[in-house]
Amino acid sequence: MSLLTYGLLIATWIGITAFITQRAHARNLALAQVKNLRWYRRHYPETVKCSCVRCYRCQNSEILVRQTRHNDAMEEHFCSHCGTILYYSSWDD
Description:
The structure is a single chain. With 93 residues, this protein is α+β, with helices and mostly antiparallel strands. It has helices spanning 3-34, 37-43, and strands spanning 48-49, 52-53, 63-67, 74-79, 85-90. The strands form 2 sheets. The protein has a 3-stranded antiparallel sheet. It has a two-stranded antiparallel sheet with strand order 1-2. β4 and β5 form a beta hairpin. It starts with a helix and ends with a strand.
């Protein structure tokens, strides 16, 4: 194969990768806007008491927060024991 063919293959691969990444990012943002604390409370009412939130899988009450990979203003709340992502919040909330 010629150098031009390799260049075209690489450019195509980069374009496809960028498209897939953009779609995944949009899907994650939409999911983060839906799966908030209100959603979590509605789906797992027995795990939220006042300001105490527990993991629905392992019942651990130590919930940690980290910024999401694609959006610095969005945080995911996850269980420190099993790593399950429970819900998302934004700084605007």
